[in-house]
Amino acid sequence: MDKVVASAAEAVSDIPDGATIAVGGFGLCGIPSVLIDALLLAGTTDLEAVSNNCGVDDWGLGRLLMERRLRRMVSSYVGENKEFARQYLSGELEVELTPQGTLAERMRAGGSGIPGFYTITGAGTQVAEGGLPWKYDSEGNVEIASPPKETKVFETHEGPKEFVLEHAIVADFALVRAWKGDRHGNLVFRDSARNFNPLAAMCGRVTIAEVEELVEPGEIDPNDVHTPGVYVTRVVELTPEQAADKRIERVTTRPRPTNAEEA
User: Fold this and answer.
1) Which of 69, 126, 176, 258 has its CA 20 to 30 A from that of 20?
2) Rg of the Cα trace of the chain?
3) CA–CA separation, 210 vs 226, rounded Å?
4) Can you tell me the distance from the alpha carbon of 46 to that of 65, in angstroms, rounded to the nearest whole number?
5) pLDDT at 253
6) Which domain holds residue 45?
7) Residue 41 lies in a domain
8) Under DSSP, is residue 101 helix (H, G, I), strand (E, B) or coil?
9) In a domain? residue 221
10) What's this model's pTM, rounded to 2 decimal places?
């Protein structure tokens, strides 16, 4: 039952080239930065990443992107990463942009054994009709476009509406970061880090968690567990320095008001 491994390098050592990885976090909040760096050092390449975003140019998944380790990205938001935009528009990276709530539910469904679901999000748009550019060629032409999706009309309290069939996501591996975890893999996430980390943890066939604080089994109140240990395969305990190394996605400040302004 003890799922703790000695190092991040050991935890990711069996992730092969070409694997699909689900990665937790939201922006730069709650991202498994230590596991991502271990994967970078391992030289693993040709990866498909499923994550809310691709980090920034020098942190998070952006570090894998800069080294051309990603071949495909399934995400919702990519606006903070200039290299991501450059690779996508130049035909070096395939990108499946997915509405954020749909992405969250696709990951949750994958971990729940639900193969697909219908959602109203995207009905009547190219999300359903197909034709969204997933990959360009080097000349800027669309090389791969999204396929049309099955739709169906359901009766709602507002009358009949069209819904779109979305397929669940099951990743080969999942990388997540928890505020606290025990040796059995029970995890607690804090604040915004709770957004996509539990979903990523659910949808991975093998889930690896880096934890800022490792405790013994029984020290976490069962009512406080966000991800039960049944979903988690390996646990990596972070050093205090690793746990404290957190970046701000975009620093925004304003001048401190003077006493006169406060009055």
Assistant:
1) 126
2) 20
3) 15
4) 10
5) 83
6) 4-115+168-244
7) yes
8) helix
9) yes
10) 0.92
